[in-house]
Amino acid sequence: MKKNCFFSLLGCACGLLAFSAANAQTGFDFGNIDFLLTDNALDDAANRYASVTLTSEPERAGRLGFTSANAKLNDRSPRAQAAQLAALRAVRNALDEISAKQLSPSKRADLTLLKESMDDDIFALQQHRAESDPLYYAEALDAVYDVVLKPVSSPRRQRADLTARLNDLKNVADQAEKNLANPSAFLARLAMEKTYYAYISFDELVDILVQDAEDDIAAAQIKNQANAAKRSIKKMFDLFKEQSQQESAADFRLGKEAYAEILKNRYQTTEPLAKLEKRFAQDFLSAQKQLAKTLEPFAQDVSANEDEVTVIDGLNNQPIVEEQKKEPAKKEKKTKKGKFVPPTAQDFYTVAKRITQAPAETDLPALLTQEANQLAALLTDNGLLPAGQVAFTVKPLPQYYAYTQSDLFLPPFGNNARSDFFIRLPFGNRRAQAEQLVRDYNTPTRKLLTAQELVPGRFYQTAKTAGLSAARRFYPAQSMADGWNEYALKLASEAGYIVTDDELLFLAWHNYRRAAAALVDMRLQSRQYSYNDAMDFLVGENGFTQEDAEALIKESALNPGKAVGYAAGLDALESARAKYAKKLGKKFSLADFHTKVLKAGNVSPNELADELERLYK
């Protein structure tokens, strides 16, 4: 059968050769049959990779856009992971047999992406998460809500998929109890927190399931099934709680070798750790200086010990007055003239508390939609982005995500050209909602969110790259995606969208916090820092609140390397822009440059230069 396929393919190729000679305007070049066959070998490997993902990781497949995976959860047994590892290694060996020189130029970048993604998957499987990581089981709760968030054509189909995943939670709970052996107490605590919030927000799932129930009997049956799923969640919570209290539990930190492997495969960063640490220490110092500069306009009228702080209640437009205890005045540090005294996070907190207020408009989805469209028009009119709108709808996240604060939003599933953008709306009592409005949706924070995550940030890029190859859509270089997110803030600032003293201060704070996160992530995961060392650095040395410092350490535990990986993508984008601006001079167009970057997609940073060169030619 394979021989017949080969000769059929060869016959088609020969026919296309004759066709292209008479129709040169098509642009296809089949002058070397080896290129055609090698391209198809790559496509075959990509299809096999997708097949392994679909059968072994339905949760991930669902996020990639495969609807057939919506009614399943991962089999979290060591046996299943061993089978998946063997299948992936077979596909990876097939990739090694493909010669990059015999691929068409556009497929070479795809080959790199597939190799990096597969290497990351293989390395993750080698860590035996089923036996060591409680979060691996808690991720099943995210998968349940993925069904709620995904765009659907049939509510009935959605409810059926949701019921199937809820019913499968019993198997997940049983596997966690059976397989987990001496996990990290810190990771168990994070898994316990996620499971707790899934439990207390469970009623929202029941409400979805009982919608349009045929009768009371059907509704009662649905509720019984849901209660069984809720008991499974409670079982996981009890297990994770017990594991979080074990004194001899394993260390959640990766160590230098494992950390370097994740940086290489997942975030395309291959610099030696010592060199990276030196670089990020310098970045943190630069971020401190920039924060100090943006704090200067507020220096004269800032009091570190204000008698009261007024927070505007965005729901009723009434002030909420908080009495604060006076603290003894601190003696100013004596410094030599000209010596730089770095600011701390507390300096930012003090100013931010005084200058921020809730938005006048409390319909946040409508407000973000309006502001994103205005920013898109501004960037297009100023020649920073190509013409053309991106369609989206802003919707609130379910309570589960709101409670955990794991995401302010979720990206489109399957790289849809049009999809929903989910935000975390304020919740709780009136006072809690007012405080969240001030903290999360004051004007500077909202502008950063709009630019970084909507337009021209992650959502815009995802929509604009929806027509790329499967490799670039499903297995993008994470460092380039994160790098574009940071680059989007630069574009917004250049366009005059982020321009006031307040907005520039919050942008400097964002960069300061990001630089601190990168440094802590590197020192923590390479085991230079213990948990207590990281807290001392953030709270003791740099004035972060306990809550903010804890959030940064949790981010490192949940996504090791992510705080570091953004730099590779940002550097690649800024270097490419500087190169073509210098090369083309007055002919250089930012809109055209960004069009080509979007056409290239999130290729590996090392491949971006070749891709842009091909597109410019």
Radius of gyration: 26 Å
Shape annotation: globular
What proportion strand? under 5%
With strands numbered from the N-terminus, the spatial order across the biggest sheet is 1-2
Unreliable spans: 1-29, 303-333
Tell me the structural class.
mainly alpha
Mean pLDDT: 86
- Tally of DSSP helical segments: 28
Largest sheet: 2 strands, antiparallel
Whole-number total of structural domains = 4
SS elements, strand count: 4
Helix content: 55-70%
Distance between the termini: 41 Å
How would you explain this protein's 3D organization?
- The protein has a two-stranded antiparallel sheet with strand order 1-2. A two-stranded parallel sheet has the order 3-4.
- Helix content is 66%, strand content 4%.
- With 617 residues, the chain is mainly α.
- The chain is built from 28 helices and 4 strands.
- Helix 19 (443-454) crosses helix 22 and helix 19 crosses helix 23 (501-525).
